[in-house]
Each structure stands twice: as structure tokens, then as C-alpha cells.
Write a structure and sequence with these properties.
It is a single chain. 40% of the residues lie in helices and 15% in strands. It is α/β, with parallel strands linked by helices. It has a seven-stranded parallel β-sheet with strand order 3-4-2-5-6-1-7.
Length: 204
């Protein structure tokens, strides 16, 4: 079972929330993501994709803080989704020292830079804000271990797609996990850039 090999803190939290059986998607995907491969996760709504993103990100960081530079980066379509995902992460990071930070687009970019500089483990942001932070040298990507893209259909927009490619060019080595309801040609093309040798988990 996928839950058995998760970090003890995660298993405890999952049990607290009354989750005793993984969804078919979670059963198929968690082990592959934990292996460190780049993964396309393709499944319909309510398959457990976002929860899987949270669990596997925390697993990758072993549920503990380290250093000051972000070790996980999670991309979302817009500010509202960033704030919602931040709240979802907090359900699992309470009683840990993990520092989850959302780059709220309503805040001044200089404030975001200074707060990230103080120390962050998981950064949740849009690609637009992340690209702006990189251009202003407000984000250190050298320690990144995993990048998750939640509901990646927004990458069909040219501006978002271009911004993401610009961001990934500044990252030397990292695992990428992309979550989407359906595969499309623009997402497929990412194999030519950073989704190299990607595995595909498909649940219909």
C-alpha cells in the first residue's frame, strides 16, 4: 500500500483525516513520484491529485526544515489557487518545522523577496510571480528538489508556458511532477525541455 512507505508524520496525519484507502490514482502514482522520476499525472477531477502533490512534496523534504532556500516549488494558475493550496498544505505541516510560503500577488514584490530570503522550504506561486522574482534575483533555485505543477491546463496560455520555460532554464537539477486532467500537445512538448524521460500515470 502506498501509505505504508510514507513518512511517519504523513501517515499519522492521513489517519487523523480518516483516510484509510488511497484512490486508484494515488495507488498508481505515489510510488512512481517517490522514485524521483519526472512524472505526468493525468486523472479526472476528484482523483486525489492535489492531495498527492502535497503528500509527495512533504515526503521529498522528509517533513522537516532545512537551510533557507526553497527545496520545493509548486506552481498554480492564479493567486486564489495559491492561497487555497497554501491552506491545504498547512493541514499537513502543522506540528512540523516546515516553512510553507505563498507568494501572494497582492503583496509588493520587494516584500516577497525579503520574506523568502528569511527562509522557506516550500514556495507556492504562479509562474508569472516566480519569473519576476528570478529576474529581480529574489529567488535562489540552487536547492530545489521537486517542482509540482497543479492543474497544469493553464500552461496552454502562451505567456504562462513561456514564463515556465524561462524559469526552468535557471534550474540545474530537479524532479518535475505535472498534474492535469487531460494531456494536450503543449504539455507533451515539455518533454523536449524539462520533462525528460517522464513517466505517465493515466487514470480515466
Amino acid at each position: 500500500m502506498p501509505f505504508k512507505k510514507l513518512h511517519p508524520h504523513l501517515k499519522e496525519k492521513i489517519a487523523q483525516f480518516g483516510i484509510d484507502t488511497p484512490t486508484p490514482f494515488q495507488k498508481a502514482s505515489i510510488g512512481t513520484i517517490k522514485s524521483g522520476a519526472n512524472v505526468y499525472c493525468i486523472a479526472p477531477n476528484n482523483s486525489g491529485k492535489t492531495t498527492t502533490l502535497i503528500w509527495t512534496t512533504l515526503q521529498k523534504l522528509q517533513c522537516e526544515a532545512q537551510g533557507t532556500a526553497p527545496r520545493a516549488l509548486v506552481f498554480v494558475e492564479n493567486n486564489e489557487q495559491a492561497l487555497a493550496l497554501y491552506d491545504a498544505f498547512l493541514l499537513y505541516t502543522r506540528h512540523t518545522d516546515l516553512r510553507v510560503y505563498v507568494a501572494n500577488e497582492k503583496e509588493h514584490i520587494d516584500l516577497l523577496k525579503s520574506e523568502i530570503f528569511e527562509g522557506v522550504d516550500i514556495l507556492i506561486a504562479t509562474v508569472k510571480t516566480t519569473n519576476k522574482l528570478l529576474l529581480l534575483e529574489g529567488l535562489n533555485t540552487t536547492q530545489l528538489k521537486i517542482i509540482g505543477i497543479d492543474d497544469a491546463s493553464f500552461l496552454q496560455e502562451t505567456n504562462a508556458y513561456t514564463a515556465l520555460l524561462a524559469i526552468t532554464q535557471s534550474i540545474y537539477k530537479c524532479q518535475y511532477v505535472l498534474y492535469t486532467n487531460t494531456m494536450n500537445p503543449s504539455l507533451q512538448r515539455l518533454e523536449n525541455y524539462f520533462m525528460t524521460f517522464a513517466k505517465k500515470i493515466l487514470i480515466k
